[in-house]
Design brief:
The structure is a single chain. The strands form three sheets. The chain has an eight-stranded mixed β-sheet, sandwiched between helices. It has helices at 12-28, 52-57, 74-85, 101-108, 122-132, 145-151, 173-187, 202-214, 248-262; strands at residues 36-39, 46-48, 90-91, 94-95, 97-99, 114-119, 138-142, 160-164, 192-198, 220-226, 236-242, 270-277. The chain has a single domain, classed as 3-Layer(aba) Sandwich (Rossmann fold). By secondary structure, the protein is an alpha/beta fold. The chain is built from nine helices and twelve strands. Helix 7 links the parallel strand 8 (160-164) and strand 9 (192-198). The longest helix is centred in the first third of the chain and has 17 residues, at 12-28. It is 37% helix and 21% strand.
Amino acid sequence: MNYRHGFHAGNFADAFKHALLARILVHLLRKDAPFRVVDTHAGEGDYDLSSDEAERTGEWRDGVGRLDELVAPVEIAALLEPYLTRLGPFRGGRPERYPGSPRLAQSFLRDDDRAIFCELRPDAFDMLRQNFARDKRIKTLHLDGYTGAGAFLPPKERRGLVLIDPPFERTDEFSAMFAAFHGAYRKWPTGIYALWHPVKDGARARAFYEAFRKQDIRRVLRLELCVGGSGEKLDRTGLAVINPPYTLAAEARALLPFFAERLAQGQGAGWEVEEVTGE
């Protein structure tokens, strides 16, 4: 458990993931009925991009830093607005604090909506608990996220999102993530699930998506962004969305080409949207 997201906060993978999560949360707001968000690997909640950790890697510069003073086509600007608004004002080319998925989710909650944020790393959980202690809509739990994925399902709200976003420190992380998802899905097959993953090994990523087909899990959308570059560091990331909002595939097909161009770090940048399984 050595992973500290402060080194990576606001990088291209965060921009990709959080812009798409914002689109899912916008969809949930379209109905008056309350919803619940379960974030299994919540981290600290938000991050100081002027911290020593963020400055040492500077990854935010090739991620959220490229969205400062954004000029984009009207359609793209409208799709990004829910995400960009929640970044707050930029100073020195960056937001003062970068909102992780818990802070992003919190910003969409209405009075009757609820969220559960799980985090296992003790120091990260201490910060998470402090960050959300005053919000009665939110429960923070010092808990293994894979346990938390299904422990609170189905929610009484009957609508919502489960985000499974592990650090990928384990060699079996893909299989562990799928097992946690599958256990949760059996309890709540109508919920929206978003499973983030890096793409370092194409064969492992393909095997991960094949598992959905083998289990006859329907309505799986694969979203992928590659920023290209030297290949010496992570340059490709993906999001599997199960039971995606009906608009998400089209929105991703509009957003991802823009991200592939805007966040490109070298040759090979690109994107993919695939409906892996469907009804």
